[in-house]
Design a protein that fits this description.
Blueprint (H helix, E strand, L loop, with lengths): L1 E4 L4 H13 L4 E5 L19 E5 L5 H10 L4 E4 L6 H6 L2 H23 L3 H6 L1 E7 L24 H20 L3 E6 L2 E2 L8 H10 L4 E4 L5 E3 L1 E2 H14 L5 E4 L4 E3 H15 L12 E4 L14 H7 L7 H14 L1 H9 L5 H11 L1
Parallel strand pairs: 1-2, 1-4, 2-3, 4-5, 5-6, 6-11, 7-10, 8-13
Antiparallel strand pairs: 9-12
Helix pairs in contact: 1-8, 2-4, 4-6, 7-9, 9-11
The protein binds nicotinamide-adenine-dinucleotide and 2'deoxy-thymidine-5'-diphospho-alpha-D-glucose (DAU).
2'deoxy-thymidine-5'-diphospho-alpha-D-glucose (DAU) binds next to α7 and β8.
Length: 356
């Protein structure tokens, strides 16, 4: 089986669901269930023996070591992290704790387990670290997109903590020979995205009649990738990535934030028109910019295409349409996230099972 960390978060959820549907190999899902972890996302797997959930911290080396050994894990996919840039500005400590110290604890557990494996299993083992394009810093408007050779220049506590984790992963390969691969991906969007991030926040605020807060002039550029494409890239890198290599993953979809917000509004105008007949774009409100806001990210994804044959399947037009439809169809999910009710899911669904 494989160990997935952070598998109750946005991308982890999509990865676990896609993995079980397409590969079918059992998944051990280790997640601390911070505010961003939502086990309800995985309710469709209740009773499925291919998914086992454990609530715990990646930094708990003893726990991780025990889980690896008991389950004869063949690969680790590390999604677990604090992921929201704005939260990292308000409270960086949790980012250092999980993204740096936690990744270190995880690596220590994996190193001990992997080091004791018999030769054949040792050479087949993989540690895939999921990282971000934000480690590369910000691009000028005309600069070429980030390649894997771009120097690290993280600007927020979040990206600095992710950069530190990438360096630790790299060092464990270089020093101990740990069989690692790292992916650096651009902005994801799609189902189960926590409504603190731009796209889901705009959808839920629009529908609730609230302002749509655009930071600064709204001309910051992000490179958007549908989450299902990120999942297929990770599967491909896990399968065929070269040890010690990093792979940039992106959708060739650079767009300014304001255009994203206007696109979301136009789709909502089409699918769920406002009762007063006006456009949701009327709700756009410019607010003070994010401190240290990176102006532009863009991923050059030619290496993963050339070496591993991976390409995104969705265009932005198809992906954003699916995403808006998902949120319209999952008003209950949104309501339970916003009320905090989703946090009761663990005791509701697992309380009795754990004591059985
Ligand atoms: P998320 O915040 O939605 O989910 C993170 C998950 O990790 C949550 O379920 C949370 O409970 C869990 N977690 C947090 N601390 C933990 C700990 N100490 N131990 C165990 N579990 C813990 O994040 P996401 O958007 O799904 O991102 C997943 C990964 O992908 C992160 O490493 C992030 O840096 C990276 N990434 C995200 C994006 C994006 O656009 N969302 C893009 C590129 C890379
Ligand atoms: O690039 C990959 C990264 O993308 C991931 O590593 C992060 O985990 C993920 O959160 C995301 O970071 P961003 O900061 O780019 O995402 P966010 O959705 O927070 O913001 C996207 C852009 O929209 C950014 O330029 C800030 C802006 N924004 C965001 C919010 C929440 C607004 O203008 N208004 C908002 O209310």
């Amino acid at each position: 089986m494989i160990l997935v960390t952070g598998g109750a978060g946005f991308i982890g959820t999509n990865f676990v669901l896609d993995w079980i549907a397409s590969v079918g190999e059992p998944v051990l899902n280790l997640d601390k269930l911070t505010y961003a972890g939502n086990l309800e996302n995985l309710a469709s797997l209740a009773g499925d023996a291919r998914h086992r959930f454990v609530q715990g911290d990646i930094g708990d080396t003893a726990l991780v070591g025990r889980l690896l050994a008991e389950n004869e894990v063949r690969a680790v996919v590390n999604f677990a992290a604090e992921s929201h840039v704005d939260r990292s500005i308000h409270g960086p400590a949790a980012f250092v704790e999980t993204n740096v110290v936690g990744t270190f604890g995880l690596l220590e557990a994996v190193r001990a387990y992997w080091g004791a494996l018999p030769a054949e299993r040792k050479s087949a083992f993989r540690f895939l670290h999921v990282s971000t394009d934000e480690v590369y810093g910000s691009l000028d408007a005309q600069a070429p997109a980030f390649t894997e050779q771009h120097r690290y220049e993280p600007n927020s506590p979040y990206s600095a903590s992710k950069a530190a984790s990438d360096h630790l992963v790299r060092a464990y390969h270089h020093t101990y020979g740990l069989p690692v691969v790292t992916t650096n991906c651009s902005n994801n969007y799609g189902p189960f995205h926590f409504p603190e991030k731009l796209i889901p926040l705009m959808i839920v605020n629009a529908l609730a009649g609230k302002p749509l807060p655009v930071y600064g002039d709204g001309q910051q550029v992000r490179d958007w990738l549908y989450v299902g494409d990120h999942c297929s890239a990770i599967r491909r890198v896990l399968e065929a990535g070269q040890l010690g290599e990093t792979y940039n993953v992106g959708g060739w979809n650079e767009k300014p934030n304001l255009e994203i917000v206007r696109t979301v509004c136009a789709l909502l105008d089409e699918k769920r028109p406002r009762v007063d007949g006006k456009s949701y774009a009327e709700q756009i409100a410019y607010v003070t910019d994010r401190p240290g806001h990176d102006r532009r990210y863009a991923i050059d994804a030619r290496k993963i295409e050339r070496e591993l044959g991976w390409k995104p399947a969705e265009t932005f037009d198809t992906g954003i349409r699916k995403t808006v439809e998902w949120y319209l169809d999952h008003a209950d999910w949104v309501a339970r996230v916003q009320s905090g009710a989703y946090r009761e899911w663990l005791s509701t669904n697992y309380g009795e099972r754990e004591s059985a």
